[in-house]
Please model this.
Amino acid sequence: MRGRIVTTAILAAGFAAILAVNLPGQLSYDSVAQLLDGRTGHYNSWHPPVMAWLLGFFDALLPGPSLFVVFQAALVLGALLSILWLRPRVSWAAAGMALLCLLIPQFFLYQGVVWKDVLFADAAVAGFAALAQAAAHWQHRHLRLGLILLAFLLLALAAMTRQNGLIALAAGGIALAVIARCKDANPAQGGVAFLAALVLSVAISLVLTAQGDGGDGARAELAMLQIYDMTGMLHAQPGLPLEKIRARDPGLESVLRGDGERLYTPTRNDTLYFAPPLVQAISAAPRGLIFGQWQALVLAHPLAYLAMRVRLFGWVFFTPDIVACRPTYVGIDGPPDELKALGLTARIRPSDRVLSRYALDFDNTPIFSHPAFAVLAALGLFLLLRRRRPADIVFACLLGAAIAFTASFFFISVACDYRYLYFLDLSVLVTFFYLTADPGGFVTKSALPRTSRE
Model:
């Protein structure tokens, strides 16, 4: 009991300190734009509308991003506190793990930043924590159903927040199916829960999109991904043919081989926007031309495509130049007119500078290393699948989702920003908090075939 009380006190004090240091929140350009979208109720098609809606909801209660940051942090705090009640006893090691988590940037800084990457990771982790509680209280039908509902609402939020967030939702369905089978229940309920949450997330997204600007943000993002791929392949092999574009839009070919090749960098695609002729040519391209040429180029030269994608994934996963991959962000920054409309001013407070310097002290250490967290994820999977308690299965699926989410960036990565794989880091930290809270049972294999062994 004392281990649980001490760990709870550490977590409560730690999150209070996180909020005290970060509030009203750290806001980048995108954060400011989404806050304004939320306040006006008119959503930009380049951003997930659910995040803007949440920002607007909390802004209506208290102007500014403060309540959103509190909500975001509460998701992770709630997940950690719930873990302390999965077993009758809590190891003192959980207190040490809690303190470690709170002292590193993934908690102390990132939980104060208004980014969709953080909201996605927090919602997904909280969803799996609720699912672990459902597994632990399976015999209490009403409580179990309420926890499953909460879990998939949170996973639906995660899926709406990031395009590849569906991976976490699918992993949640798999976890529920496995647990149901272990409890001699129908495993199909995992698929039912997944489909229901998927339908809900699509429906909400459509409703919110109907209040948007009517733009083609999603299509434009896909086109820019394909342009980024093609400029990367041309950068490595300038002689690759672009027959489709040459036949229908020779001007686009000219800027791709000119500005596109010149401005390409594997660290991010933002540099392509520095050439107005290239941006204009992409916008004016006949519908379907960019995809058609990208498809033809990839099918005709798959090794060139894979080599280019290996380089890009190497940057986002290994972050060979951690500073170029922007591991930290502090302050408030955005377009002056949008800041004025929100009643905000661009600023970096002295406390922000101290926080940034503290976070940067972890540069080039395992704390800012996705490969290190991937190794820990593999270790965690081994331990969880060896012991195989019902809640272990849930956290194993969380780690599996984090690994699959990370792997998906092999195909969609357009920048190496550290925050893109924040879900991997957070999932590992929360899972090891769970393991340290109850480290017993790893020496003797505890099989869990079709009946629960708690």
Summary: Residues 449-454 have pLDDT under 50 and may be disordered.
